[in-house]
Amino acid sequence: MRSHFLVNEEVRINAQGSSSPTLSIDQIDNTAEHWKMADILVFNTGHWKNYYKERDYLYPKLDAVDSYKRAMRTWANWIDHNINPSKQPHMRGRGGNWDSGGVCNGEKEPVVSGAILDDYPLEMKIVEVLNMRIPVRLLNVTRLTNFRKDGHPSIFGKNATPGKNVSTVIQDCSHWCVHGVPDTWNELIYATFALQQTYSK
Hints:
Blueprint: E1 7-13, E2 19-28, H1 32-35, E3 42-45, E4 51-54, E5 57-58, H2 64-82, E6 90-93, H3 115-118, H4 122-128, E7 137-140, H5 142-146, H6 181-200
Parallel strand pairs: 2-4, 3-6, 6-7
Antiparallel strand pairs: 1-2, 4-5
C-alpha cells in the first residue's frame, strides 16, 4: 500500500480555483484499514511542504516540524490501537532535505565530508522520542543516505522524455533513483529480519 504522508491527504480548492494538497494531521491515511492485514509493516517518513489542518481548522501558517510532530503522534496512536505487537511494525526514517534541495545534476561520487554528514534532522529526533505502547523498531538510514548526493533523479525525474532535452532548472534532489539508495534500505531491512530470526531461535 502506498501512503504519501501516513496521515490523510486532501485537496483544497482556494478562492481562485487553484488546488493545493492539505494534510489532515489528526487523521490517519485512508489506506490504514489495509495495513492491519499485513504481516510486516514498513513506514517511511521524510520532509513535507503542505497546508495543514486539524478537524475543520485549516492553519494559515504552521511550522513544518510542528505539523510533522503532530502527524507522527497521530501515526503512533493508530499503531498503538490497531497493531498486534507480535507482528512488530518497523519504521524506516529519512527526515529532512538533502543539502537544502540544492543542485544535484552531474554528481557522480558520494559525499566524503562536510556538514551534510553531521546534520541530524529534527524530524528524526521527533520519531526517536515517540512514547508508544506498541514497540516499533527504528531503522535509521538518514546518515548513510546523506552520503549519496549522486543518487538523486536530478534533471532526469518523472517529467523527463527520452530523446528530448531536459531542463537543468528543475531538479529533484530529494527523491532517490531505483536501482540505488532504496535498494540499500531494503537490504538493511532484510538483514534486520534475518538477524531477528537468528536471535529468536
